[in-house]
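Protein 1 of 2
SEQ + STRUCT:
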Amino acid sequence: MLAAVWTLGVGLAVLTTLTLLGWIADPKGALGEGVPGVFRTACQIWLAAHHAGFAIPGGGRIGLLPLGLMVMPAALLYRAGLWMARDADLRVRLPARLPKGSPKEKQNARRRAQLALIARAGVSLAAPYALLAGLVALVARNEITQPFLAEVLAGHLLLAFGAGSLAVARTIGPWRVMLRLLPERSRSLVVGTAAALAILLAAGLVLVVGAIVVSLDEIKRLTDFLGPGLIGGTLLLIVEVLYLVNAVIWGMAYIAGPGFAIGTGTLVAPTGVRLGQIPALPLLGALPEPGGAPVWAMAVVAIPFLAGAVAGVVVVRIAPTPTPEAAPMWGFGCGLCAGAAAGVLAALSGGPLGGNRLTAVGPSPWEVAFSVTLEVGIAAGISAGVANWWLMRRAAAEPAAAKAGTAQAGTAKAGAAKPATPAEEAAAPETPEPADRGTGPLARLFRRRGEPARPLPGHWLDATECETQPLPSRPAGGADEDGAAGTFGDVAPAAPAAKRPRRLPGIPRRRRVEKPAPPRPAPPRPAPRPDIVDETDDRGGHVIYMDPYAWDRD
């Protein structure tokens, strides 16, 4: 309730201030009579920002509202949702991620709980916000314009629910993990639909900006014809900027094929332009000339197919399917979602502008939805099928390559077990011993391709618990087999074996004369330890040693 009141209060305060400044500059204008009229006009602008239409007694209705006005209430609702979620400590109560290795059932339960919490937060913000908007609609009624109460409640409820839910989801987790709240298949459809719509809207924006740049002279002529003055010119510029979002959606409808209308019996489409009398709005000066469309205009029809191809690849990349016939169906499903979204945008961007001829302004929602569904859906189905086949083919090739590498390693191992002739031994290059390579990064660098990693010799307790020391060795014939000797104090430790010099593979051997190393002093003899036992000497079977680590070797 506090978030809803704060949003309405700030928004109405800003609009009332701007309307009051305009009324002071032009008291005899159309912004109302006196302070009550100014406040009533600000309330009507606030309702129009939520796409709530107005009825004109005896003159039809006004439904062609600028979508750019939605930016201010959407931003205020988003900030209110963030404050609401942070005040409730939602990030602490329900974090976005679980520890790694959590069961899948627990992850799904957490996702459902997060979605339920987001929906509850959106409803808790949207319900009081819509009720307060009903009071604003009662205040905004006058003799000329009367807002539709049903559209007021629906517009405020949907906008508040969307902005509040998005803010709560952003509080629970960062932007990059917000989509992970959805299941994988739903996430693929959402991202694919967003990609297709983004390409279509970007192309519509380029088309509109290009038409405005080409028709600057006509737009200037219409502005001079109106003669709005400084204050009126500023307000006219603000209105045109706010209607620019509608123009971008009309450009998307033009690219899709159906086009849009500027009154009954008119059409602006790639197949041709048919116009009559149009309102004296300078932005409409960017419309093409009546008559047949140029040949290059038909090239824009290929953009929806390009958007569908990109959307199909995105759908498969996020959620591939093991059945080849299912991928085209999911691609066409993405086209259905994109068509439905384009139809909704077309319905929001158009509407009546009074009575008589201006009852039909903007694109037809069902025509835009049907065209985008077919164009994007067919292209997305084909690209999804091809991309899914390529992913399955690559996934099947990786195990085959790994199996072939294992077979080559086994063949090489079997060939190494055969006795080699002296000529083969002389021709074979010398390689380091596999046991000396270990399992570290440097060892993997020098390991041959296809050769499995081999662990280092010794037991893991040698480096963790035990104090390593060379085992003593009994010289041949040094003791009898009666087992009378209890210690090995008279036995010298075994001398370490001489190591062969190592070299890297691929480097030829160099013959050189090694100088004899100077004699080194003998290392000091370690003190005998009673806990070291030579288990290799069983004294002819009279001594049995029990291995305490046999369970680990098994």
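Protein 2 of 2
SEQ + STRUCT:
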Amino acid sequence: MCFLSLNRIFAPMILVFGGTTEGRTAIKTLEEAGNVYYYSTKTGEQDVVMHHGRRIDGAMNGQAMRQFCQGHDIRLIVDAAHPFAKVLHQTIADVAEALHLPVVRFERIYPPRDPSLTWIDDYGELASLPTPVTLLATTGVQSIARLKPLEDRGIRIFYRILNRPSSIAQAKAQGAAEQQLCYYEDAGGIPVEADAILLKESGESGGFAEKVKAAKAQGMEIIVLRRPPMPTGFHLVDGEHGLRRMVEHLLPEFYPLHSGLTTGTCATAAALAAAIRLAKGEIPDEVPVRLPNGETISVSVGYGEDYACCIKESGDDPDVTDGIEIRAHVERAADFEIRGGEGIGRFTLPGFDFPPGEAAINRVPREMIRQNIQLLCDQLSISNFQSSIFSLQFSIILSVPNGREIALRTFNPRLGIEGGISIIGVSGIVKPYSEEAFVQSIRKCMEVAWASKAERVVIGSGMKSEQQLRRLYPDLPRQAFVEYGNYIGETLRMADGLGFSHVTLGIMIGKAVKLAQGHLDTHSRRVTMDKAFVAQLLREADCSSEVLARVAGITVARELWNLLTPDEAQRFSQVIVSHCREHCAPLLPDGELTILLLRSGD
């Protein structure tokens, strides 16, 4: 999904070196700014879609890179190239030093190194290892020339390469025979039988764990070429959120609006800082917080007499919790637990992640805290500290000074959360978008979907709905899936204006009950669930009087699924889709509209 600023501003340029999965993610992240950047690949064979990015292809030496940066007002370099592109990394470092440019290294996420594998730093070390009869090399077409000497020792080598003409031609030019070549069918597949396999430490996006698992299943010896170290001075990130936040820090003019942190991320940072002080006696200014998507960002923290704290930063997203202090007090305990203290609200109604009476700390933040504390325990155990504290035995109490007063300015009282704020957040990051910019971003994505010549466009509210919709339409290109957020009416009007003849609208129950009532913009700032209208829908679906009596007690619409029998749920779904169609179909007079009512977790 691309998010664009309506009023593009002049901003200094960014040069991205990509050609990788990380390069694709960098494109997605930089597109959110709505400003021009450059995307460089060596071969030009990577298929990417950019709206504001300008593509340049072909290898650059130091002189060419320096001239390009000087001639195009480059103020920041993003190195998202393959981790084994040593020459390119060093060239970037040399040019950046000469021109005084910051470099953001978009690194991959790597699992801990398995000591049961054979690790090497250079191809030359293979000569000193026990000689296998057959070897499967998955280290890329450019490594073939380095491995050919092993064939003189009687080793039969198979080379797994990309099945594309340029790679095949390079392989044969280096002396590989046709019968030695095998190709990628899936990340973890083993295409031939061999005694040993040679891998690069390629990280999660390179399918390293899948390859290791498949090789172990076949009893192969596993030899791994360690990734080379990066030049010093690079700013390291390992995900889209970290990349955006680092660009906002190093080149603040590039993004018109800046991102922030959820209360869940701030609570995690405070808890982790307090645990570090308890376990190690250290008080770092920043702590590494792993987000739900697996990447890690650095978060600033502070300390009081018996707690650690984190100041909530909302970026440019308007939020009454901006600037509040979230505290964490950590003690040793028999078991791991998270509790809410002063200023943390409590659930008083059913329908949330936890039952009434529990602290309003949602499931994702709780899991973030647990995972980050577990990572700390793992690190301490590896460092051979002698203490039972490393078995995740912590009691964590979260609190927010003035949280009770702040909560009165939120929807919490209406939702049945009393006594303070909620600790929430799904991604861990708050991305700010003006309404106008968000609508324009939808328009651009719809235009891209139209240009892809897909047979239909599939619109959904977010990541969860898109995952379900992709499973239903596996043959559609990625560009055919567009996120509408809350702007259902605007998105359907765009589909009609572009001439789409087939549109699928995926919607979950929370937005569906609003849309069924005629609210084409379902944002909670404008409309909340109308229980009287929901009761009307249930009556139309011929649901039982018991269900109707319990509607008044629900807090969120998804609770309805727990009240209905399978037959009632089917009838209710048909009724609600019918009402949604009544309001949506007129916006697509010349097209066929399919409405799918999705259920979370399906």
